[in-house]
Amino acid sequence: MASNLESLKKLLTKKAVYVDDETFAKASLSSEQARTIKVLEQRVETLERELDSAISAAAHARTEKRQAEAAKKTAELRAQDITRELENTTKVFELHMEELRAKQEEISERDKEIKLLEAIIQTLGGKKSISTNG
Fold this sequence. Notes:
Elements: H1 2-15, H2 21-133
C-alpha cells in the first residue's frame, strides 16, 4: 500500500498543473457551467421526447375522434332509416286495419241481411204452411 501511495505521489508530482486561485476559480466556474449545460441538454432532450409523444397522442386522439364522428353519423343515418321504415310500416298497418274494419262492417251488414232474409223466409214459410193447412 505504501508503494502504491508513493507511485501516486510521483505521478501527481509529474502530471499535476499548479495554477493560481483566479485561474482555478475560472476553471471551476467553467466546469460547473459545463455540468449545468449537460444537465440542461439532457432536460431539453427529455422535453423533446415528451413533446413528440404528446404530438403523437394528439394525432391519435384526432384520428379516434374522426372515427367516432363517422360512426356517430352512420348510426344517425341508420336510426333515420329505421324510423322511416317504422313509419312506413305503421302506415301500412293502419291501412290494413282500415280494410279489416271495412270488411268487418261488410260482414256484419251481410250477417244482418242474412238474418233478415231468414226471418222473411220463416215468415213466408209459416204462412204457406198455415195456408196449406187451412
